[in-house]
Description:
Helix content: 25-40%
Largest sheet: 4 strands, mixed
Oligomer: single chain
Strand content: 25-35%
Strand order of the largest sheet: 3-5-6-4
Radius of gyration: 12 Å
Amino acid sequence: MEKNLLNIGFGNTVVAERVVAIVSPNSSPMKRLKDEARDDHHLIDATHGRRTRSIIIMDSNHIVLSAIQAETISQRYEMLKEAEE
Length: 85
């Protein structure tokens, strides 16, 4: 079984099939989601000390922070989906 890996920047990848949503971190609900994930130890910070530009919500209840724009990651996700077909 082949897994498609989604590049989320700086050498980090996630399994594309496990991604539920890719969102911008700027809204209050997303800030709360990030804080709750941190408190529950479900937060994965893949920013390497850079500013968080997107939040990736996984089906495993983990929240992944990326320093790459949400639009860019979404485009990469769509390209992976098109390559599957």
